[in-house]
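Researcher: We're teaching a course module on how sequence relates to structure. For the next exercise, students receive a sequence and then see the predicted structure as C-alpha cells, so they can try to spot secondary structure elements on their own. Here is the exercise chain.
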Amino acid sequence: MCATNYDRRESIEGAHLGINIMRRSNYKLGHQQSMQKSDKKIVEQTDLSLLEELTGAFEQGRTIRLLNGDLTLLEALQSDDTHTSSMASLQMYNLIGNRLTKRLVQDQRFPGNRTKMIRTDNGGCGFYPAFVALPLLRRALRTGSPEDAIAWLQEVLSTTVATGKTIDALWGVPVEQEIPLTEGIKLVPIDNLPESKNKQWMMGAEFSNLSSPIITTLSFTPPQSALVVTRKIDPFLFDPDLGTELTNDEYLKTHELIKEIVLVLTVVGPRVAISAAQWFTFDDPDLEEANILSGGRSMQMLEILPLGAKDYPTLNCAEAQEMVAGYINLTGDNRSKVRVALQRLNQALRRHNTGDSAVELATGLEALFGDSDNSEMTHKIRMRTARVIGGAQQERIKNAQLIKRMYEIRSKLVHTGHVDLNKTFKIGEQSMTARDIVDQAVQICAQAIKTIIRRGSIPNWSVFDILEHPDSPVFQAQG
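Model: And here is the predicted structure for the students to work with:
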C-alpha cells in the first residue's frame, strides 16, 4: 500500500512540473525551480516512508516475547543459545520481510541498489542492501529509537577506514599484565579483552558444553589469556560489482605468526600452550554492530587432547619476549627445525602415555641435533644435547644419561607397544621411573630449544663434534 501511494504522489508531482514548465516564460529557470521543489518533496516523502516502515516494525517488535514470555525479542536476539537467537531472527524477518529493504533502496540518502560489503581481517561479509534490514531493526530495538537506527546506518555507510583486533584466546598461559611480544602483537589477560559475544561465551557457563560426546577438562577451563593483533581495515566497505579483488595475504601471514608464537610459549615453563578460539572485532562498537559475522569464531581441531588442564605458573614476561623475538629472527632451516622441535615438545606434554611422550621428545631432539647420517643416532643426540645445553660436568653427565634412558623407553614402546611404568632406572645414584625420566627429558628438550633460539642458529655438527665447544665461532648454521 505504501509503495502504491508513493507512485501516485510521484505522478502528481510530475504533472505539476509539466504545468509549471508551460506557464513560465523563462523555460530554463522554471524547469530548474520546479525540479528542485519536486526533488525536495520526493526526498521528504521517502524519509517518511522509511521511518514509518521501521517505526511500525519497531512498535510491533517491542510487544513480542519468546520462550513463554520470558524473553523480549531483543533479549532473544542477544542470547548465546543458537536456537533462541535463530528463532528471534525469524520473528524479525516476519516483521519486516523485504519491505524495509525496498524503502532503503528508494531513499536517496543511501546507495540505492549498489552492494556494499564489510571487510574484516580475513575477507568480507554482506551488509547493504540485502542484509541490512535485520541489523537496522535490532539497532532500533536496542536504542529505543528508529531515528537513531537510520542515523547509525548513514554513519556506517560513510565510514571509509576502520581499526579492529584479531584475538586468539589461549589455554595454559596465565599472565598478570599486558606483554608486548612483537610490534603489532601483545599478550593480555583474558579479562582485559574488550567486551564481546565471544568473551561472554568463553567466560560464561555456556563454554562448558556437555552436549558434545568428546569431553576433556579443557571443556571446563576458560582460557586465561589472549594474543591480540591490531588491524587496519582499509577500505572498510567495498563493492564486489566493481571487480575489486580482495587478498588475504596479510591475514594468512598474521595467522601463521600467531600459531608460531603459541608454539614458542611452550618452552617458557615449559607448558601446554593451546589456541582455544580466534575471532575479529572492530574497535568502534557501531561498526561491530553492523558486522553480521560478529560473534563468529574459528577453532582449530586438536590432534592430541591433553588429559588435564594443568595449573601452570604465571608466564615469565622477560623470557617470553626473548624467546618470541629470537624465534622470529631465525631463518631458513634453523626456523623450520626449531618449529618441529617446538611442535613435538608441545605434543609430548599433551600425551597421556609415557612411551608416546618419549617418541615425541626423540623426534623433536633429532630435528635439532640429528644429521643426514643415521648411524649412532642415539649417541649423537645425547652427546650434542648435553654439550649444547652446557653446565657443570655432573649436570652434563646426568643430562646425557637421561636422554639415553629416554631413548630406551621410546624403543621399548616402538618395538613392544608397552612400557613398564614400575621399572626403575639408575641415573647416577638416583633411581627413577620411566615417568620421572620422561618428565626430566621434557625439561632438557625445552632447555635445548631455548639455547638454540638464543644462539640464533643450529651448530655445524661436522665441526662442533670435533671441537666440543658451543661457544666457539664455528657454532654457526649448517649450509
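Model: If you want an answer key for the exercise: The radius of gyration is 32 Å. Confidence is low (pLDDT under 50) at residues 1-47, 472-479.
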